[in-house]
């Protein structure tokens, strides 16, 4: 199975976490990226942390960008 590089970044952080994971194809890798964003947001909500912005970029073995999953929240409080 081909390896895909996942680059995770939270708002306000310069550091990025990079993980290499095997997936059958690009579609499966992007689905996993979307699921990881959801899991991260759910975890932060459970810990009463404000989920503001998460970005996951997925690259294939040739370092070609497969896709980006980004979730941004705006506060509804005034």
From TrEMBL:
The lineage of its organism: Bacteria, Pseudomonadati, Pseudomonadota, Alphaproteobacteria, Hyphomicrobiales. This is DUF6894 domain-containing protein. It comes from Phyllobacterium pellucidum. Residues 4-71 form the DUF6894 domain. Pfam families: DUF6894.
């Amino acid at each position: 199975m081909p390896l895909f590089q996942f680059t995770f970044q939270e708002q306000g952080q310069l550091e990025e976490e990079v993980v290499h994971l095997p997936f059958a194809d690009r579609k499966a890798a992007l689905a996993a990226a979307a699921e990881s964003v959801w899991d991260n947001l759910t975890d932060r909500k459970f810990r009463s942390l404000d989920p503001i912005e998460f970005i996951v970029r997925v690259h294939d073995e040739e370092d070609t960008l497969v896709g980006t999953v980004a979730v941004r929240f705006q506060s509804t409080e005034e």
